[in-house]
Sequence to fold (514 residues):
Amino acid sequence: MMIHHIAAEAYPFAKAGGLGDVAGSLPNALAEQGSPSTVWIPYYDIPSLNEAHLTQAWGFSFPSAFGTLSAEVFTLRQSQKERASFYAIKVSTWTDRKGIYIDPESGHGYWDEFQRTLVFQLAALHAIRSNNQRHDCSTKDQIFHCHDHHTALIPFLIEHCEEFAHFKGIPTVLTLHNGQYHGTTDLSKVSLLPYYDPSKQGLLEWDHALNPLACGIKCAWHVTTVSPSYVEELKRSSNGLEGLMLMEEAKITGILNGIDATVWDSARDPHLAAPLKFGRKDALKRSKELNRQALDEHFTLDLSLPIVAFIGRLVWEKGADMLPSVIHSIRSEGIPLNFILLGTGNPEIHHQLTALNTDSKPTYIDTRLEYNEGLAHQMYAGSDFMFMPSRVEPCGLNQMYAMTYGAIPIVSNVGGLKDTVHPMTDSVPRKIAASKNESSPSTLQNPNGHGFVIDDFSVQNIVGILRQAVDFWHQQDERLAWMKANHQVDFSWARSAAATQKVYENLQSKRIGA
Fold:
């Protein structure tokens, strides 16, 4: 099978969030398992794309509601590790913006967001068709895999628009990375699509508007989300699509994302002060301490106390609005710990956090209001606990990085956090066992749990759990045993790819039987 991934971003070429991680890693894992994959993203005028190894491959023209448009296709190569084929499509004035979603000059989204994503989707379909012709490829064993609302019109376009009739009958998959964003626009913009049977317009509509995500859910052969629990959450809260999620639940599967083991390798990570050694207990203790000491160069710390870290966007979804109150309570109650933070987001939260920085015993608070990938890696390796009080977390990757790097997670009981972090029960973890559910993060899990789980989302309860974590930190032998057990949990993309491969195989079987 040839899998065509169409997405708004793909790491390392263009990334704004978790979608970029998936579109950059899953296709490589699929290719390694025998499913050749292509990845198609817009060409943005951003440093990460401009600094990549770009080769102009071919060009073409295509019709649109904005006239005949010209497109250029570039092959992308960052290193030799890419197994999938990555392409960037440039349609001048439409794709070559200075930001992926946000205009860096205004700080707001682009006014023509629907138009530019539509142009990209049309261009991607024409690019795939011309690429098939260049290589004399049949569409018989091909699948289109779309990601979020930015490419969610593609299942409709290939099934109902005459312009793409040659793709009709090809299975389509839509992955929901964040079901809260639909790409909704005024219904009058249906006129911008290529010609389709007017009787099919209802597929484009939801709540009297043109809703690309709803259209994709209706039209895709199969829908996936980025964790099993997120499927259930979307049925209860998906910004107005709850009824649709319930209607289509038979074709929705939750598959947990993975992490790239070549980037997140605690034994070989170039960002770390020292490689982490999870073999002998004394070696783990020593290597962890070296990385804790390295954090003292970036933050004001008392290394005789546990280090609790928060890494992420300072927004409501991540529970960041709770941080000032939590930190104030920690300090007022005199809980002996270091609390360090790395992130950017809401300016008001920035202001409140800056005012809370303190090195007054016994609580040390220090924040870095910036994005720093290297420092983030060092924080996972040097911190004792990773704090994630998220309200919404479709999958979550930070908890996976944390367990891989020896930081015990403290998380909310939502989405992918619920699937990956089970509450610790005993003082010493038992032998890790395998699970039969291949799409579940529990495939290799510690049956005694992985960390501390926040069930009651209140400041008082959160502070109480942080106090429990501090008490646990002083149980050194148990803590080291838990770190080692968590490190062995398999969060590889290979597992996610295998589950995704099963979805593809089922769709191909349906196609053959049709």
User: Anything to note?
Assistant: The chain has two domains: 2-258+495-513, 281-491.
